Amino acid sequence: MLTLAESGHTAGPLGTADLFAALYFGGLINFKIDEPYWDDRDRVVLSCGHYCPVQYAALALAGFFPVEELKTLRKLGTRLQGHPVRQIDFPGSNYKQLPGIENTGGPLGQGVSVAVGMALAGKMDKKKWKVICIDSDAEQQEGQTWEAYQTAAKYGLGNLTFVIDRNEIQISGNLGEVMPIEPLRDKLTAFGLRVFEINGNNHEEIMAVFEQGKLFPDQPKAVIMKTVAGKGVGFMEGDFRWHGKAPTSEEAEKALWELK
Amino acid sequence: MNLVSDIINVERKATREGFGEAMVLLGRSDKNVVVVTADLGESMRVDEFEKQYPERFVQVGVAEQNMMGISAGLALSGKIPFAVSYAVFNPGRNWDQMRVSVCYTNANVKIVGGHTGISVGPDGATHQALEDIAMTRALPNLMVVAPADFEQAKKATMAIAKHKGPVYLRLTRPKTAMFTTSTTPFELGKAQVLRVGKDVTIFACGGLVYEALLAAEELKGEVEVEVINIHTIKPLDEETVVRSAKKTGKIITLEDHQINGGLGGAVAEVLGEKWPTKMVRMGMRDSFGESGEPEELLAKYGLDKDGVIKVIRKII
Fold this sequence. Notes:
- The complex is a heterodimer of chains A (260) and B (316).
- Chain A has 260 residues and is an alpha/beta fold.
- Chain A is built from ten helices and seven strands.
- Chain A has a single domain (2-87, 103-259), classed as Rossmann fold (3-Layer(aba) Sandwich).
- In chain A, helix 3 packs parallel to helix 4 and helix 5 (110-124) runs parallel beside helix 6.
- The longest helix of chain A is centred in the middle third of the chain and has 15 residues, at 110-124.
- Chain A starts with a helix and ends with a helix.
- Chain B folds into two domains: 12-177, 3-Layer(aba) Sandwich (Rossmann fold); 192-315, Rossmann fold.
- In chain B, helix 6 (150-162) links the parallel strand 6 and strand 7 (167-170).
- The model of chain B has no long low-confidence stretch (mean pLDDT 98).
- The chains are: A alpha/beta (260), B alpha/beta (316).
- Chain A binds chain B through residues 85-90, 93, 102-104, 106-107, 109-122, 124-125, 143-144, 147-148, 150-151, 155, and chain B through 34, 55-56, 58, 60-61, 63, 65-66, 68-79, 81, 96-97, 100-101, 104-108, 164-165.
């Protein structure tokens, strides 16, 4: 789909495919494909909106919309916008909502606060649904992200889990060189989050960490998920140059062959 | 229009007070109304709401970007959040969050910016929001409302809570003249002809509507001034603007804001396309404010009654 779009982000989505598989196919979240905005659903907030190709793929495979529609990514008139959109459809709006998307994402840090707002609403109304917010490691460089974390801790939002994709790349280089964020675990702990570290390319570890999280019902959780950017494709793995570009058709063919 | 009978001798109260009173009423009538603030609850007059509805009061500390995002999340979960802080921060500091998480999303968030204009006074230029109308007016889906006095602020607050979609409400700090009454009609998007005239029209918003009324009263018999209160700057009541421009053929806009991009800009854009008319924009002329008492500042920058009279005489 990225090749057809001729632009978009490749590395992050490939690195987090295991997470999305666990969410939508491993039973980690409650959802109804025929009622995408069912009140009691769990909310998946994609704060690093540029990861949307993997979420679009997961939603399509889960049955929210036809798989064929994935080919329209970034094309004129598509519901699969270059960055994901959640728009409240008040009368007069002509926007077509892609079902399953919970937030408008792109400018980093914004979804983290939106997720806190949702979790606060859920707590106010004593709802059982939970919020899972996916943010990237470079997103930890945004001040807003930390404003949101401290609020989640203040309000004891046990219904909220941040999953931080620690793939060590960002658009202009390796994260540690652009702007180091370590010691991330200590910082998150200091901000009041219950922190876990896992290998994000291991299905069992992803499933287990959400089970462990249930032991802390009154505290927001942060899962530092180490992943390999561009996972599964040898010539992309760990290379920041694949952060923000799409493969050519030859590259795509090679990549798909490797992934199979 | 049901204004007070004597517009010279009037009581004074701030628009933020009207907002605060309305919030308490709203808290009672709608359980979905939530207040989110960034350490300015008392100054923005939502302290009474906090006392009465603590479970629906969210204090995020000095973090306005987060305040806007949290409000979006609350709105996406069915709440009607009022994001409340000074306008220099809200929407000054969190414009990106307002643009994407609120306006693009069409989230039902009410953004309330206090301490607007040079009428903030002693705090000085850092705290005098003079660009907020321009910043908000540029955004799709967002309604922009600047009530003219205490009673109108109260009514505007009640009305925007009912309106589905994002709204920016512009409030002011000092006690200003109360010239409308509890029975003066108010409808979002509908400009108010407060005084009928044939020689010149003043389109004004916020606290300066009163200065326009005083100027018109003083010139009675000499110049017949039409005074129109544009409390809803977006969407602009184009019909009323064009109708009055056709009638008087001379336009003054008056606002406690930069002349670029604010009410003057909005009126000029409409008339430029539909009925080009001789026009003077009154407001801050591409400069920052400074410390001083509100009335001293309005006099210095020519935005009080006397300043308005000078401009009327020039344009006539």
